[in-house]
């Protein structure tokens, strides 16, 4: 029985998108079924026009990825959230999706699923770790089993954080480095492995 992994992310310039796809590659390597979903903007075109490339990038990514839904979260055995940093915390776009899961939270339908997070910033020390840790709070409220990375793979000594994959794009919107992407792939593998083990245990318990 395959493990279902939802990667719900927001990306403006493509850095978080690249990490999301690397997480997906890692999870697929473990045989997981994937849904990649991009959270949508809720500001108008006037606001988007103030940031160069925002509208164009959003249009491209919205063609490539559906918006995340409650049904996606219910389907998933693991939910991986990805977000750029906004003033050291999660973007409003991704937070709006998390906030929309209140119905599933009330029914307890997310309890026991795996949760993990990744992020990107434009500046060094720009809030990578604070953003990741801030997402641990809603994951705990949803009842997710939080899966951090620790230093369980040698690549974590070169990139990423023990809390989740990360990258720094700089002012030129540099893409994630090879090590950044390797951390993200490791995160996908780790999430799929843990979620798969938990799913197998539940199936065994049900049959028993």
Oligomeric grouping of the chains: single chain
Order of helices and strands: EHEHHHEEHHEHEEH
Q: What is the total domain count?
A: 1
Distance between the termini: 17 Å
Shape: globular
Helix content: 40-55%
Total helical elements: 8
- Any idea what the radius of gyration is? 16 Å
CATH topology: Rossmann fold
Summarize model confidence as the mean pLDDT. 95
In total, the number of strands is 7
Instruction: Specify the structural class.
Output: alpha/beta
Please mark out the parts with pLDDT under 50 across 5 or more consecutive residues, or reply none: none
Largest sheet: 7 strands, mixed
CATH class equals Alpha Beta
Domain Flavodoxin-like: 5-191
Protein name: NAD(P)H dehydrogenase (Quinone), Type IV
EC number: 1.6.5.2
InterPro entries: Flavodoxin/NO_synth, Flavoprotein-like_sf, Flavoprotein_WrbA-like, FMN_Rdtase-like_dom
Structure description:
One of its GO terms (cellular component) is membrane. InterPro entries: Flavodoxin/NO_synth, Flavoprotein-like_sf, Flavoprotein_WrbA-like, FMN_Rdtase-like_dom. With 208 residues, the protein is α/β, with parallel strands linked by helices. The chain has a single domain (4-207), classed as Rossmann fold. 46% of the residues lie in helices and 17% in strands. Helix 7 (128-142) links the parallel strand 5 (114-121) and strand 6. The model has no long low-confidence stretch (mean pLDDT 95).
